[in-house]
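SAMPLE LOG
Freezer: B-3
Tube label: C17
Construct: single chain, 416 aa
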Amino acid sequence: MDARFTDEQDEIRRTLRELLGKRCGPEELRAAVDTPAGHDPALWTTLAEQLGLPGLALPETYGGVGCTATELALACEETGRTLAPTPLLATAVLAAPLLLALGTGAQRAELLPRIASGALTAALAVPGPALATALALTGHDPRGKWAGGGRAGGVQARRAEGGWQVYGQVDQVLDGHSAQLLVVAAHAGGFARSRVLLFLVRGDAAGLTRARQTALDATRPQGRIQLRHVPAELLGDETVDTLSALARLGDTAAACLATEAVGAAGRVLERTVEYVGQREQFGRPVGSFQAVKHRLADAYVQVQAARSAAYYAAWAAAAEATATATVTATATATATAAATAREGAAGGLALAQALEALRRAAAEGIQLHGGIGFTWEHEAHLYFKRAAGDELLFGPVHRLRAHAADAAHVFEEAGP
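STRUCTURE (predicted):
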């Protein structure tokens, strides 16, 4: 493994940091989250047209840039620095990989070029507060019980004349109130033969009702969707292994979320160091006091360790995708399963470490900024809410670590 960034990766980071520095300052951020969509469509268009951000990890065949999950994760680190409210996570990290992995040739040809161009935004809708379980970040459910089933609620799908219909309700859908395409996980086959499938629902479909929800993290807008016999299109065909695809997606999602969190942690720590170097108390800068130095030094070490773990998770996710694409049908078995477990553990552990580092850096930032750090006018609290909000969505730190340990068989006794 070569830990150095390539020239292309450095260019992605530099260009994105410069653009977001000009277009996503504190005032622009607050204006964007107060819009009905929760993000600035003009900024999203610029990111798509100038940087190709929505299609960064999509093949060139579909209008993408042709990079890997590593480059996508590095882009997320830069958006995390500014807490940029964009559809990047929902569209490029969660929805697009499923369309690429499971979609038919016609579905990929129709949808992926529009996503790559920024003309189409998408969202993954998983019933109940079970996104972390569906992505196999905090647990593994081989039967997909998290999606409901039979009469247990969730989202149900049934055949209708000319296709499928879905009905049910999904809360806490990232960008679910504004996305033009919904990828909905639903149970099909009735109670006795229930299985989880993914369906495509257009944002203007008849019977679909959507509303934005109030979220702890305003920079991560969420929506509630209600489906009343909504016409839907099956993603791929009925033979696809939806649960395995979601679990593989969890590796990439965890890596992107981890780099995003360390980007936010690094930025809030930078701002805190700048502030304590300027703020004077008792005739000297606050940052000159030994106790303050020690606290910031501890936070810095924690952030740097989390950054290293996040970079490794991003590399591992890209390596896993490459291995999955090249492995032959006769060579899957044990080696592939073991590799997936190791890399999935890397993603979950990196995410846990990054969220912990962000919470620590944001908490220190709030306290060391003094009274202004607790006010709505200052953005320090937004970083703390990002850490807390991500734990609610993608799993608390202790559960991420516990599942990673189980996936890697850390606590299993060695055989004779």
